[in-house]
Amino acid sequence: MSLKLIHFPMTRSLRVAWALYELGLDAEIETRVFDRAKLKEPDYLKLNPLGKTPVFFDGDKRMIESVAIIEYLANKYAKGALSRNASHTDYVDYLQWMEFGEAGMGGYVGQLLGHSMLLPEEFRIESMRVWAEGEMKNCLDFLEGNLEDDGFLLDEFSLADISVGYILFLVKISRNGKLMGEKTAAYFARLTERDAWKRASALKP
């Protein structure tokens, strides 16, 4: 196999780097400085026409969706490690949390980040920030109600934790950690104590 990730620290490519380390897969990780302007330049648009991150290659096959990439890696190269299929009793929970990490929470945290710190001041809309904060709190309350005092989303660590954990990271760096309940904050602390997380989050250009 010839696996390559073009990685930008703190972006969704962090999910993929984290999964690569958790799965013990050998891949080239090319870490670049995150610069929004450069993502729109022709050379990068040849890699990802959307001008977004991540970009992942398996040989000449390109993938750009972080949750899809980690599922692909687990099932194609790690014998289904950290994943679930229809033969598992917790398959429904696995699928729900995998999708909730991006489809359920991702849009709200994106709006929260944009209207609190990423967009230029003149483009920020306070009412959008307040709305996104409320929706994010709703998601976090749902997560809080489904967590135990220890452990992970399923009986053991899985890709679902990577999917959800990355969004919790964005909540923290957007200075909205106060929205997390006690169980959620403790859960995120457990995730960030994992060696694979430490290695992935320490990658520098």
Note down, in words, how this protein is organized.
The chain has 205 residues and is an alpha+beta fold. 55% of the residues lie in helices and 8% in strands. It has a four-stranded mixed β-sheet. The longest helix is centred in the middle third of the chain and has 21 residues. The mean pLDDT is 97.
Kindly summarize this structure in a few lines:
The protein has 205 residues and is of the alpha+beta class. The protein contains ten helices and four strands; from the N terminus they run βαβααββααααααα.
Q: Given the helix and strand composition, which structural class is it? A: alpha+beta
Strand order of the largest sheet: 2-1-3-4
Distance between the ends: 24 Å
* DSSP helix fraction: 40-55%
Keywords:
205 residues, alpha+beta, four-stranded mixed beta sheet, 10 helices, 4 strands, 8% strand
Question: What does the secondary structure layout of this molecule look like, with pairings?
Answer:
Elements lengths: L2 E5 L5 H11 L4 E4 L4 H4 L2 H4 L9 E4 L2 E3 L2 H12 L13 H14 L1 H13 L7 H21 L12 H15 L8 H11 L2 H7 L4
Parallel strand pairs: 1-2
Antiparallel strand pairs: 1-3, 3-4
Helix pairs in contact: 1-4, 1-8, 1-10, 5-8, 6-7
